[in-house]
């Protein structure tokens, strides 16, 4: 018979493994063990503090935050005042609010915030009009697009982000007619209605979010996916 302590050890070992699927499964199983599991998750997260944040770190941070234990939230805020991921910006844009929404898994509001931040990158005129011209995308700093992308990646179990969308788009031979249905932006040649038609949780297909100004059509998306941020090293 396996004791609770053996289970705890096994799950902690699973967190150290190479399989993301098993790591994420261990997070949920540890959470289900109650306070002991929460303490194990906290210890794992703090033990990885000096390492670059990964999808595992993002998931642990999310589930610990969601426990709504004030002492735990206070501890997280002490270690990481802005969230688990650093958010560098070449233009001094504050991505803290976006990180906060993603930690809370408020993907719909995070999507709106992403568009607001893209407008901020494009300049005051874009902020005023509340959308981005495709011609403005190529001027976006590499660092900022990567920051936005990494925030979406680490807080979505690797399902969402521009880089995920680009990978799918390339895998489909850059064929937009195949790409839109693959990420559930189109069905039977009919565009998905915003916002009610979209899926604002992790049951959505890979690449479903962020919408990145989806209503403006293919040229905006093409400019985003062709940006140097995805082809440069780093």
From TrEMBL:
InterPro entries, per the entry: ARM-type_fold, GUN4-like, GUN4-like_sf, GUN4_N
Chain ranges of the GUN4-like domain: 89-228
Residues covered by the GUN4 N-terminal ARM-like repeat domain: 3-81
Protein name (Swiss-Prot/TrEMBL): GUN4 domain-containing protein
Organism: Leptolyngbya subtilissima DQ-A4
Organismal lineage: Bacteria, Bacillati, Cyanobacteriota, Cyanophyceae, Leptolyngbyales
């Amino acid at each position: 018979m396996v004791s609770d302590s053996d289970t705890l050890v096994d799950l902690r070992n699973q967190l150290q493994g190479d399989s993301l699927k098993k790591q994420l499964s261990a997070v949920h199983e540890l959470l289900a063990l109650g306070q002991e599991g929460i303490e194990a998750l906290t210890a794992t997260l703090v033990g990885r503090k000096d390492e670059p944040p990964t999808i595992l770190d993002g998931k642990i941070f999310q589930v610990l935050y969601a426990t709504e234990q004030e002492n735990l939230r206070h501890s997280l805020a002490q270690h990481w005042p802005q969230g688990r991921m650093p958010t560098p910006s070449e233009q001094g844009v504050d991505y803290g609010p976006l990180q906060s929404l993603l930690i809370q898994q408020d993907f719909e509001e995070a999507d709106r915030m992403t568009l607001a931040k893209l407008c901020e990158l494009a300049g005051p005129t874009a902020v005023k009009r509340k959308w981005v011209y495709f011609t403005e995308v190529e001027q976006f700093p590499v660092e900022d697009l990567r920051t936005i992308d990494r925030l979406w990646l680490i807080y979505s179990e690797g399902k969402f982000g521009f880089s995920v969308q680009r990978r799918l788009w390339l895998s489909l031979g850059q064929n937009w007619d195949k790409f839109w249905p693959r990420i559930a932006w189109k069905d039977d040649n009919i565009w998905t209605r915003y916002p009610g038609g979209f899926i604002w949780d992790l049951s959505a297909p890979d690449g479903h979010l962020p919408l990145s100004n989806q209503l403006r059509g293919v040229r905006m998306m093409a400019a985003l996916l062709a940006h140097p941020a995805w082809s440069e090293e780093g």
